[in-house]
Amino acid sequence: MPAEPEKDAPTPGIPERAVPAKADTGEPVAPARVLSIHAHPDDQEFTVGGTLAKWARAGSQVVTVCITSGGAGSNEHTPPGMTRGALVPIREEEQRQACRVLGVSEVVFLGYEDGMLESSLALRRELTRVIRRHRPDAVVCGDPTVRYYGAMYMNHPDHRAASDAALDAVFPSAETRLIFPELLDEGLDPHKVGAVFIHGSESPDTFIDISEVLSVKLAALKEHRTQMGTWDPTEMITGWARLQGAPRELEAAESFRVMRLHND
Ligand SMILES: [Zn+2]
After folding, report:
1. CATH entry, 33-260, from 3.40.50.300, 3.40.50.10320, 3.30.360.10, 3.40.630.10
2. DSSP state, 116?
3. Residue 39 and which of 108, 116, 127, 239 are 20 to 30 A apart at CA?
4. pLDDT higher for 205 or 20?
5. What is the pTM of this model?
């Protein structure tokens, strides 16, 4: 049995356990390949649309993964006769339009049931498959550890499940040959994701200035017509962007906790 490591010594082979991440003051360069993983159509536009628009304009190739197609997304704007089956293709098309506005090159729908998402092994395998296929430098997803935002919004269980499965797919599944070995048979070799940009974190360390693409974020969000109805999200989104930018004195930002898993 190996000797107990000294209290403050880095854990051999697992440096990230012992070395606290430094606060990142500079804005990271746009990753070459980005995979943006979310539970529902519109989640991406509310949370990270500015960052993706900025990166796409800087040359990033961005692929969006929408785990459900938002078939339960009914609200006061929804016609009374609307069904899940009728809503799905409408929301998929709204998501495609929003992605076009942002500059996202591809949207993948995984077809899971809206409102019923679990961080299952099946979902982890599916996301591992997508990661190995698209081989992103950065994955963008939510924070599964946050259950409450303020006093008025409990994080949707689908959001928590989606981000939990996304993080588990990034590490260790995507980079480990003998996890889901059936993927090797599909020609999908292991892939190391360089960094994970986690939005909605209570301890953000990275701030993307979105002031020049705030209008693009709003335009993309407005493509989700079934969800927006006649509501203009400008005031709310502008306020969120100001709040997230405040720690760096930015007029408009999206903030992230960033896990840097591999630098190469
Ligand atoms: Zn959602």
Report:
1. 3.40.50.10320
2. -
3. 239
4. 205
5. 0.89
